Amino acid sequence: MTTAYVFPGQGSQFVGMGRELARLRPVVKGFFQRADAALGFSLSTLCFEGPESELNDTLNTQPAIFAHSLAAFAAVEMSGEVEAPAFVAGHSLGEVSALCAAGALTFEDGIRLARERGRLMKLAGERQPGSMAAVIGLDTDILRAVCAEASQAHPPGVVVANDNCPGQVVISGDKEAVAAASAAAKSRGARRVVPLAVSIAAHSPLMASITEEFAQVVAGAPLQPARIPIVANTSAQPITHPDDIRAELCAQLTAPVRWTESVQWMRAENVTSFVEIGPKDVLVNLIKRIAGDVETRAIG
Length: 300
Fold this sequence. Notes:
CATH topology of the largest domain: Malonyl-Coenzyme A Acyl Carrier Protein, domain 2
Radius of gyration: 18 Å
Order of helices and strands: EHHHHHEHHEHEEHEHEEHHEHE
Number of domains: 2
Strand content: 15-25%
Number of helices: 13
Strand order of the largest sheet: 2-1-9-10
Helix content: 40-55%
């Protein structure tokens, strides 16, 4: 059996995440303590006790999910009960978790990167407020055409942001453009369009205002060659070299998450088992819809 580990992004957080795991496993408690020390405030308290409004702030959500994912990953590694991965991949923010699991970043450098990514994405949302919506049951190519039409009428426009699985695609961009694309998607046959509770337009051109600042953060991160190939969001291809990792982290802000293609690529490389490591089981459910013949498991 060939295994891949996958790491979730924003949306998997909840108050209480990691609390029971930290109580039962000293290694998990230790990782949350390291997170607190690296950031200079009690992220662990925010994860374990809330308040929910603060945990759901992008600034905090990103390092919180990262900390939980890496703490759970350490527990998995120590247990020896799960086969070591041939590949790792992460959805959006989860890519930073995957990089650390692959040995390209230390935990402390990774959590500081996740915090800065969250801070700058929040700043981009304040500079240019946007929105996102999940479109259910519409062909991705039709949706891309819908977005192109809406973008012409409402610049800076709207794009396909996350190709999550067949029948579930997220669009992102200017509020008016997202609204226009949502209405057009319904008229073209989408079963449902669900607005997401976010104030940022992730993986869209609206993130362009922070790309230079984030590039400086990424340039300063001490990256090592990855021991395990990371299947990149923007290309759905494996990367290991620090230069490729830096380019991926920067491009990912404004480029779509090609999750369907990433899973399909790993399946073509004979991956038959996917293990999601993080607070929930969001990715496991997507993977079942992309590759129905694989084993899936959520840990954390």
